[in-house]
What we know:
By secondary structure, the protein is mostly beta strands.
Amino acid sequence: METDIGSPEIKVAGVGRGAVNWSSVIRVGGERSLGKKKIPKGVIVTLIKEEISIFRVINAIEAPEGKDFLLPGLEEIFLLNDVQLKYQQTCLPGFLLVLLLLVQLLGHNGVEGTRDLLEREDQELEKQLKLMNKPAVKTIKTQYGDIYDCVDFYKQPAFDHPLLKNHSFHFEMKPISLPKRKRDQASFEDEEPVHIGLIGGGCPVGTVPIRRVTKEDLIRERNASKVMSFADNALGAHYAVVRTRGGQNKFNGAGATLSIHNPRVSGRQYSAARLMLQNEADTIQVGWRVDPTLYGDSKTRRFIRLDAGQSHCFNTRCPGFVHVRSDIPLDLVYPQISIPGKDVYVVPLYIDRDLANGNWWLLVGPNNTQVGFWPKRIFTGLADMASYAEWGGEVFGPPGTPSPGMGNSDFPTSDTLYSSYFRNVEVIDGGGQNIDASNTESFAENMTRYKVFDEEHTNLRHLVVYGGPPSS
C-alpha cells in the first residue's frame, strides 16, 4: 500500500498501524548500508505530519554529513529508488514524524522554519522542567539511578494547582478522622512485606522526596501520548478486574494487599496492578506498575494516578496530591519481586477518606503509613464519597502488536503461591465501617487472553486472583 504525502512527489510505502516502536538515533549523510540499499550523501531531516493517513511535508533542515541526530520517534528509515521511503509506524493521527528525504526536494525557507520549530519545542521542554523540578534542599540518588529532590513541603508540585493556592496545609498534617481498619490477620507463611521507603532515612524534616524529571522523560511521554490515551477505552488496553456493581454505592475508602511482580514489557507496553476509586469523572488509583514510557526502565514501581478537572497524571507530574512523608516517594522501585512457587512479596495499599474534611489519604504498608492526600477541594465527584471501586490488572500494547504479561504473566489458579492476587479486598462503607467488599463482579474483555477470579470468604478474606501470559 502506498500513501500520497503531497508535494513534492514522494510516496510512503508500507503504511500500517501499530508496528514496532521507534528508537531515537538516526545517522544521516554519507553512505550507510541498510541491507542492499544505501542512503546517499546530502540528505535532510524533514518534519512530516500525518493527517488521517495523508502525510504532508512541513519543513526540512539540512543535515551535516555523518552527524548523529537524537530524533525521538524513529527506528528505521531508508531510501528506496530515491523517491520512496519505507518505514515502520506506531503513530496515531497528529503525531510528528521525522523522515529522511533528498536535499533537492525542499528549499531554504523550509530549513529555517524547522530550525525555529525545533528551538521552540526545546524551549517549551525547558519551561516544563523548570515548573516540575522544584529547588532541592538535598538530593538523593538511589541504587537504581533515580534522583529524588528533597523539596520544601510548601514548594512541592501539589501547590501549583489553582485550587490549592490558598491553603493551610503543613508537613506535620495527619488525618483527623480516618475509619478504623481491621487488624490484618489474614496472611500466609510464604508472604514477605516489601520495603516501602528510601534507604537511609530519606529527606530532612519539612521536605518531601520528588523524583526528578528529565527532558528524556518528557519527550518519551509526549510521544507516547500521541500513540495512546490513558482513558479506559484506549486501543490496545486490556483489563482483568473485580469491580463493584452499579447501584447506590457510597464508599469512604478501599484497599487490599497486593502481590508484587515484574512482568516483562518492551517499547510502549506497560503492565500494572491497581485499585481504583471513582465518582463521576473523578478517579484516583494506587498500585504497582512496569512502564518504560513513564519511567525509562522496566522495574516494578509504586504509582498513583489522578484524574480530576484539568489534572490527569501519574505521581506528581501534575498538581493535586499533597505529599507529607519525607521518607516514602510515590514512585519508588520495589526491590523484592515474587517468584512463583517460591517467594511471595506483598504490599498493603489503601485509599481512605477523612470523615471530618473529605480529604482522600494514601496509606501504604503493614502499618498503614500515611504518605499524603488528595484534597477534597480539587474534586467534583470525589468531593463526596466514591460510588465505584475496582481491583485488578491492566496492560497495554500498541494496537497491532503483542500485549505483555499481566500479574505474574500466567493464568491464575486457586494456589496463591503460584498466582498474582489481591487479598483482604475491602471497602469503607458509607457509615465509615471497614468491611470486605461485597456485591462485586469480575470483568475481562477477553477471558481467553487474561483471566480474573473473584473469591469471597476465603482464609485470605475476599480474594482476587488475576493474570495472563503475553500474547504472541
